[in-house]
Specification:
CATH superfamily of the domain at 7-97 and 117-130 and 174-186 and 197-212 and 223-288: q2cbj1_9rhob like domain
Order of helices and strands: HEHHHEEEEEEEEEEEEHEH
Largest sheet: 6 strands, antiparallel
Helix content: 10-25%
Bound molecules: 2-oxoglutaric acid
Number of strands: 14
């Protein structure tokens, strides 16, 4: 029995690789989240690319609570099952009239098709429209792995990342327009990208990656995971977040900044204080907060 989606919504997701829109945040939650985002952006002198503020859920309670939001998790559970781990969180922000775009890619290209249960949730903090650069997808492309090449476009927000090699036919692009507080879910192998913001309004969004077993071993994942729901993931040899972040923004920001700088330098090591055992983690799961 699904927790929040209808059988036909789940079927639609299975067939197309996309489900949208799904409303999840109340106006108060949205307002509060916007406040946290503004505070973070202010202290970082703006968030221009996803590399400017990676994985804030490892450092800030508000971000941790978002990745564990019950309505989001109910939806995720309906598409990937009862064992859910948070792999990562990424902020995608396009200021008014900005040229940043996201080259077409499959999130899971590197992960391989053996990971059959993973989904990306994209949460709109502002309206996300064709004019301000909403995400576009190519429906049905999640069924196979498409060749990728290194992206060299300077305005690709995932600069240095991989992009789909084959040209994308504009007739096959579906825009994913969302109202603030709504999410879309895209299958981890669905081809997607986005274009520049040609409007006078910013476009702010947060992507959260969720995975279910059977998945990877510890060698495949760099950052600690958060066990959001279920138990089976606890049996895998993965690195888990030791405990949920606590404390004020001011207390946590310096550590986060250090983490961001290491991340940007390509030091893909994650600070020891974040790592815990499965036992530590079992006591800090989202659902137990
Ligand atoms: O926000 C965007 O424009 C693209 C998002 C994206 O590529 C993703 O969530 O994987």
């Amino acid at each position: 029995m699904p927790r929040s989606l209808s059988e036909s919504q789940i079927q639609h997701y299975d067939q197309t690789g996309l489900l949208a829109p799904v409303p999840v945040l109340s106006p108060d939650e949205l307002l509060s989240l916007r406040g946290h985002y503004e505070q973070l952006a202010f202290h970082l002198d703006g968030i221009h690319t996803p590399m400017d503020a990676p994985h804030p859920h490892l450092y800030f309670p508000w971000a941790y609570e978002l990745v564990c939001h019950p309505k989001v998790l109910d939806t995720v559970e309906d598409v990937i099952g009862p064992d859910v781990a948070v792999l990562g969180m990424t902020l995608f922000c396009k200021p008014p009239y900005s040229s940043g775009h996201v080259a077409w890619h499959q999130d899971g290209y590197r992960w391989g098709t053996e990971t059959t249960k993973a989904v990306s949730v994209w949460l709109a903090l502002t309206e996300s429209t064709v004019e301000n650069g909403c995400m576009h997808v190519q429906l049905g492309t999640h069924r196979q792995k498409h060749s990728h090449t290194l992206s060299t476009s300077q305005s690709n927000m995932l600069y240095g990342g991989l992009e789909v090699e084959e040209p994308i036919d504009p007739d096959h692009m579906t825009p994913v327009e969302l109202a603030p507080g709504e999410i879309s879910l895209h299958h981890y192998m669905l081809m997607h990208g986005s274009f520049a913001n040609t409007s006078a309004s910013p476009r702010l969004g947060i992507a959260i990656r969720y995975i279910a077993p059977p998945t990877w071993t510890s060698t495949d994942i760099l950052q600690p995971l958060v066990l959001a729901r279920g138990t089976q993931l606890g049996k895998l040899d993965l690195r888990w977040l030791k405990s949920p972040p606590q404390g004020s923004f001011e207390t946590n920001f310096p550590q986060f900044l250090k983490f961001v700088q290491d991340h940007q330098r390509g030091h893909q090591h994650f600070p020891h204080h974040l790592h815990g055992s499965v036992e530590d983690h079992a006591n800090s799961r989202c659902s137990m907060r």
